[in-house]
Specification:
- Pfam families: Lipase_3.
- This protein is α/β, with parallel strands linked by helices.
- It has a domain of 211 residues: Rossmann fold, CATH 3.40.50.
- Helix content is 36%, strand content 12%.
- The protein is built from 12 helices and 9 strands.
- It has a 9-stranded mixed sheet with strand order 1-2-3-4-5-6-8-9-7, with helices on both faces.
- Helix 7 crosses helix 8.
- The longest helix is centred in the N-terminal third of the chain and has 23 residues.
- The C terminus is likely disordered.
C-alpha cells in the first residue's frame, strides 16, 4: 500500500540541499539547467494539461469535468505525502514542495492531521482560497469545486513513519477494519467538523492506498449517521485475511441456503430476507464513493470481481450506479502488464494519456462493504403449520 517504493524514495533523500538548489535555479531563472529540480516538484511531475481556475470557470466550470476533478484531487493527496516529506527533511516554507500542489488550484491548507504516535502528518484539510481567487479575478468558487477537501496519504517507506504506517497496513490485512487506529478517529472528527461548517454536499474526502482505506471507512461511518460525503478513493486496499476467511464462510453459507431452499417451511420468508439483504430499501439515499483501481495492482484489483452473476458494463463518468443495489462509481484502468510501483502509484491518476472505463456494477467487495449501510431488521418468521 505504499505511495513510493524504496528505490523511488532514495532519489529524494537528499534533504534540504536539493531544495536549496531549486531556489537558486529559480532565482536565476535557469529552470532547465543542471538537473537541480526535485523529482516531486509540481512543475516536474505534476499534471501538464490541468489549468488553474480563471474567469472562464464562471461560465463553464472545469470542476464539472470528471477528469479534471480526479486529477486535482489526486494532486491534493500528493500534497499530503509531501507535507510529511517536507517535515522529515526540515524544509522551510520558502522551499517546501507541498504548497505547489494546491496553490495553482486556488486552495489553501487550513489543518494538518498528525499521528500522535510518531508526530507524522497523515492528512490535511484544504479549503477554497477566496483571496487567492479574487487576485486572479475569479469572483466566486466554480460550480462543482468543493469548499473543503480532506485528503489522506498512504504508506511512506521512510524510517520516521514506516512503523506506524505498516502497523495500520497490518491492521487492515488482519481485520479489514481500521477503526482501532488513532488515524481513523482523527479523520472522522476532521470530516465531521468540515461537514458541520460547510455542509456535506460542499465537501469531499479523498485518499490513496492506505489513505483510501481510511477514507472509505470514515465516509461509511458518516453515511451511517445520514451524512453523505463525496469520496474519491485511489488504489484502495482490497486484500485481507478477514476477507479470505469470509469467502470460505460464504461458500459454506451458500451450500446451507441451497439445503434450506429444499425445505418446505418458511421458504417464502427466507426469499424475502435474501432479497432485502442484497438491495437498497425504496426511498433510501445511496452513498456511492468513487473508486479508481488498476487491474495490474494486486492491492486493489479485487474490487473488479463481480458480485455473483452480475456483469459489468462500460459507461460515461456521469452515469449513476444501478438503483436498488449496493454500488459505487468504479473506474478501472487497464494498461496491460505493469510493474507494481507504477500500477499502484498516485501519479498515474493525473497523467494525460489516461483511459478509464467506468464499471457500473455491483462488485462483490463493494457490496460487502456497503451492505451494512442499508441493512434492515429481518422480517419476523411465522411458524408454519405442521399439518
Amino acid at each position: 500500500m505504499a505511495k513510493m517504493g524504496e528505490e523511488e524514495i532514495l532519489k529524494i533523500s537528499g534533504g534540504s540541499e536539493e531544495g536549496e538548489k531549486v531556489v537558486v535555479v529559480m532565482e536565476n531563472k535557469e529552470e532547465g539547467v543542471g538537473g537541480g529540480h526535485h523529482p516531486y516538484a509540481f512543475h516536474v511531475s505534476g499534471p501538464r494539461n490541468v489549468s488553474s481556475p480563471n474567469w472562464r470557470d464562471l461560465i463553464s466550470s472545469s470542476w464539472k469535468d470528471g477528469n479534471y476533478k480526479r486529477s486535482v484531487i489526486a494532486c491534493f493527496i500528493q500534497a499530503v505525502y509531501l507535507l510529511e516529506l517536507d517535515r522529515q527533511e526540515n524544509r522551510t516554507p520558502e522551499i517546501a514542495l507541498a504548497p505547489k500542489w494546491w496553490i495553482p488550484f486556488k486552495y489553501k491548507l487550513v489543518q494538518t492531521l498528525v499521528d500522535e504516535r510518531d508526530g507524522s502528518i497523515y492528512g490535511g484539510i484544504l479549503e477554497w482560497d477566496r483571496s487567492a481567487a479574487l487576485a486572479d479575478f475569479v469572483l466566486m468558487r466554480p460550480a462543482g469545486a468543493p469548499r473543503a477537501v480532506l485528503a489522506l496519504r498512504g504508506t511512506l517507506l521512510k524510517s520516521p513513519t514506516i512503523r506506524r504506517d505498516i502497523e495500520d497496513d497490518l491492521r487492515f490485512l488482519a481485520w479489514e477494519s481500521l477503526k482501532g487506529s488513532v488515524r481513523f478517529n482523527g479523520a472522522l472528527n476532521a470530516l465531521k467538523s468540515i461537514a458541520e461548517k460547510y455542509g456535506s454536499s460542499s465537501i469531499c474526502i479523498a485518499g490513496h492506498s492506505l489513505g483510501a482505506g481510511f477514507a472509505l471507512q470514515v465516509g461509511k461511518a458518516l453515511a451511517k449517521e445520514g451524512i453523505y460525503v463525496e469520496a474519491h478513493l485511489f488504489n484502495p486496499p482490497s486484500v485481507s485475511l478477514a476477507m479470505s476467511f469470509r469467502n470460505i464462510g460464504e461458500k459454506a453459507g451458500f451450500v446451507w441456503k441451497r439445503v434450506k431452499s429444499m425445505l418446505p417451511l418458511n421458504s417464502e420468508n427466507q426469499e424475502n430476507i435474501d432479497q432485502a439483504a442484497t438491495s437498497i430499501p425504496a426511498g433510501m439515499k445511496q452513498w456511492a464513493p468513487h473508486l479508481y483501481v488498476n487491474n495490474s495492482d494486486y492491492i486493489c484489483c479485487y474490487y473488479t470481481d463481480p458480485d455473483g452473476a452480475e456483469n459489468s458494463q462500460a459507461n460515461k463518468e456521469n452515469t449513476r450506479p444501478c438503483l436498488g443495489k449496493f454500488g459505487a462509481k468504479l473506474f478501472v484502468l487497464s494498461k496491460g502488464k505493469q510493474k507494481f510501483l507504477e500500477a499502484h502509484g498516485l501519479e498515474q491518476w493525473w497523467s494525460d494519456d489516461l483511459e478509464l472505463q467506468m464499471a457500473v456494477q455491483n462488485s462483490k467487495l463493494i457490496s460487502r462493504q456497503l451492505k451494512s449501510l442499508y441493512s434492515l431488521p429481518a422480517p419476523q418468521q411465522t411458524q408454519g403449520k405442521l399439518q
